[in-house]
Amino acid sequence: MRKTLILNVLLGLMFVAGTNLKAQTLEEAGTVFNDAIQLMQTDVAGAAAKFEEAIAICEKLGEEGNDIKSQAIAQIPPLYYNYAVKLQADGNQDEAITAALTAKEKAEKYGNADIKEKSIDLLTQLYYVKGNEQAKNKDFAGALASYDNALKTDPKFFRAIYGKALVYVMQDDLSNAEAAYNELLAAAGSDDDLVKRAAGSLGKKYSIAAAKAIKANKAAEALSMVEKALSYGEENANTYYYQLLAANQLKKWDLAIEAAQKALPLEEKDKNKIYFELGKAYEGKGNKGEACNAYKQVTAGPLVQNAQYQMKQVLKCN
User: Fold this and answer.
1) Residue that terminates a domain, selected from 122, 149, 181
2) pTM for this model (two decimals)
3) pLDDT grade, residue 17 (50/70/90)?
């Protein structure tokens, strides 16, 4: 009888102790959760750690801890996301990227689709802006890495492909620039504004390359560069003038005449140099009358004497 009584007392004490321990543990989870709330405005990492601690305690409690656990889980992804937004606003770009990456990671871990999507959008913007700044400062390798990070985060973030194309153009790496342009074209379509802007940049670069080739007496290369420039829409007086010069050097008179006729209506300032080269093209083709007419249009600038000489001494124009 006495042994039975002692056993019952011991069992009762164990039950009370177990109940108190459980109650204290749930209370502890609540305390840790409240500590996390207090830290949210001043210590994001500390607050997140406290929320994680509360979650761990609640997981040991089982169903009884689900309420606090769900509240803690709901706090962590937006905590990091909002922190990333604040860092971005304060100009702390690299720290903002780190926080946004953590927000995305926590959103994936805890199943917060909304914060995951927002974190991806924020990350791509951060990487893109960083890439632009690096390109501006001529850190081309860094810029390309940032644009690649943006594309890894969101493969449909076409502005990063556009950024890569511009970096390659700035480096005179026209082969890779074309590859980036073609990638952008395939992804976004020919009507996309970024595609048109990328084409414009490439066209200008090829036109400049044509001018450099002419100065280096590489007429064939210049013609090739002109064709590239025209294919990207760089149809202006300068591009056709470079084509005219190169064609004359290569004695491709018909091409030279065609280029001159396209350049003249586009040139708004000085047509004299175009008329002079047109005269040379007609002269080379053996068309004296048209050559004389072209040379007569050279009325100002450093080529006037040359044109007069061709008319009076060479062609004997009327």
Assistant:
1) 122
2) 0.81
3) very low
